[in-house]
């Protein structure tokens, strides 16, 4: 123990080994399969390459969140599932620690978005289902907002047209299940305060 105390390098590995149980390469880096106990209370159980979380693994956050999936150089990258502390869940593609690609997000209130993601935002084509009403929005998204050509489908009618910042805009039509249609144009009116 005295020789361990006298050498800073040995002291580092002594402390380090208490926080990590797993395989190492010849350079002493975490490499292969292992489990880490982080100082903030989080844990990681999975694959390492040259000291970084890389490959399949499960990261459990002290606050109750949990990610199971692929890593590349300590970042969520590839396919994975993230369970959030509020009960919501994302399952899909990750790039550089961001929801990016295609995935499904189930919100804490039961709403579900399935579609394209870009830099952690709903972006591209996707479907949002409102749990309380059963209504769904099918169409374009830009930076998390409903935007572009889309269809808003309700229980007995639907609106087909363009959206901007989550609101209908311009030419569109209502189609009712009884067979009639109403064509028109949405024009935003200014609210009087």
Automatic annotation (TrEMBL):
Record bears the keyword Cytoplasm: yes
Main location per the UniProt record: cytoplasm
Keyword set, alphabetical order: Cell projection, Cilium, Cytoplasm, Cytoskeleton, Flagellum, Meiosis, Repeat
Superkingdom to which the source organism belongs: Eukaryota
UniProt xrefs under Gene3D superfamilies: Histone H3 K4-specific methyltransferase SET7/9 N-terminal domain (2.20.110.10)
Gene Ontology cellular component terms for the protein in this record: motile cilium
Subcellular location: Cytoplasm, Cytoskeleton, Flagellum axoneme
GO annotation terms (biological process): meiotic cell cycle; microtubule-based process
Function: Functions as part of axonemal radial spoke complexes that play an important part in the motility of sperm and cilia.
PANTHER family linked to this entry: RADIAL SPOKE HEAD 1 HOMOLOG
Protein name: Radial spoke head 1 homolog
Organism this protein belongs to: Pygoscelis papua
Gene transcribed to yield this protein: Rsph1
């Amino acid at each position: 123990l005295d020789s361990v105390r006298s050498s800073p390098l040995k002291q580092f590995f002594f402390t380090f080994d208490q926080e990590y149980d797993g395989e190492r390469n010849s350079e002493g880096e975490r490499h292969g399969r292992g489990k880490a106990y982080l100082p903030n209370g989080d844990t990681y159980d999975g694959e390492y390459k040259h000291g970084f979380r890389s490959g399949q693994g499960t990261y459990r956050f002290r606050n109750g969140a949990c990610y199971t999936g692929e890593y590349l150089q300590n970042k969520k990258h590839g396919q994975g599932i993230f369970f959030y502390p509020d009960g919501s869940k994302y399952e899909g593609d990750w790039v550089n620690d961001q929801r990016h690609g295609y995935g499904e997000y189930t919100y804490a209130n039961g709403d579900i978005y399935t579609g394209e993601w870009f830099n952690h935002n709903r972006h591209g084509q996707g479907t949002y289902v409102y749990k309380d009403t059963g209504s769904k929005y099918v169409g374009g998204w830009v930076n998390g907002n409903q935007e572009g050509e889309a269809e808003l489908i309700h229980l007995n009618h639907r609106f087909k047209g363009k959206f901007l910042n989550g609101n209908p805009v311009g030419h569109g039509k209502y189609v009712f299940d009884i067979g009639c249609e109403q064509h028109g144009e949405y024009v935003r009116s200014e609210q009087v305060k």
